[in-house]
Write a structure and sequence with these properties.
Helices cover 33% and strands 29% of the residues. The protein contains seven helices and eleven strands. It has helices spanning 44-62, 69-93, 141-147, 153-156, 195-198, 203-212, 219-229, and strands at residues 2-8, 18-26, 29-38, 101-102, 104-110, 113-119, 123-128, 131-134, 178-183, 189-193, 236-242. Strand 5 (104-110) and strand 6 form a beta hairpin. It is globular.
Length: 243
């Protein structure tokens, strides 16, 4: 497996409040995590960095080769719980961090099995010969409205409240995460990204860059460059895994 990542402040914001981490846990296992912080200039970057560090360190501490799927799920939930507690605790202790939080999306690929965990609206995509598939479902107001039939998916893209998320790491004492399991094959891609990318590019555009780009190592940069060419009002983070 090969893995690449890139993050950028974008074209408008002075500070990058996104954070990411990639790690190879053993010969057949990789971990990637992306967080998109919120809470203003003083704390959004703290929330995302804390969550990425605590989550990834807990996975690296707990992971052992050959773990069962049940133990992997338990490990991921525990790491999310610890990240949430850490960010929330900091927000309670320091007034300048009040209200901070972050999204989190992570994938652990063990051989031909991918386990995705997420909170918020940062996304995971699977890309293969059949096309591109969103592996996560946004924890957001607009997604709830789409689910209830109040908005179409197309209307949701430009809805004024599209950035309001319904779950986040660190804003409450506890948080629920979603976990999904997916089979992957050699030659497949997994993409993690913050909404700074998914708000600027359609799924088919992402698919084209991943599949048809000549230099796979430059795919994250090409995605970032496209987002920035369109104004990139938010921070942009992408992580690409080639199975």
């Amino acid at each position: 497996m090969q893995i690449w990542g890139l993050t950028d402040a974008g074209c408008v914001r002075k500070q990058n409040q996104d954070a990411y981490h990639v790690d190879k846990l053993d010969r057949n296992t990789v971990l990637a995590v992306v967080c998109d912080g919120m809470g203003g200039a003083k704390s959004g970057n703290i929330a995302s960095m804390l969550a990425v560090d605590v989550f990834s360190q807990e996975i690296c501490r707990s992971y052992t080769s050959g773990m069962s799927q049940e133990r992997i799920d338990q490990m991921l939930r525990s790491a999310v719980k610890l990240a949430n507690f850490t960010v929330y605790d900091q927000a309670q202790q320091f007034v300048e961090f009040d209200g901070m939080g972050t999204t989190l999306v992570s994938v652990l690929v063990q051989g031909r099995r991918a386990t995705v965990v997420h909170v918020g609206d940062s996304r995971a995509y699977g890309i293969n010969a059949d096309g591109i598939h969103q592996l996560t479902r946004d924890h957001s107001l607009v997604q709830m409205m789409v689910d209830r039939g109040e908005l179409t998916a197309e209307q949701a893209k430009s809805y004024p409240g599209k950035n309001f998320i319904t779950r986040a790491i660190g804003t409450e004492p506890t948080v629920m995460c979603d976990i999904g399991h997916f089979d992957v094959e050699k030659g497949d891609y997994l993409l993690l990204c913050s909404d700074g990318l998914s708000n600027m590019m359609d799924d088919q555009e992402i698919l084209f860059e991943a599949v048809h780009g000549v230099n796979k190592r430059q795919c994250c940069k090409r995605l970032l460059d496209i987002a920035k060419s369109r104004g990139a009002p938010d921070n942009v983070t992408t992580v690409l895994i080639l199975i």
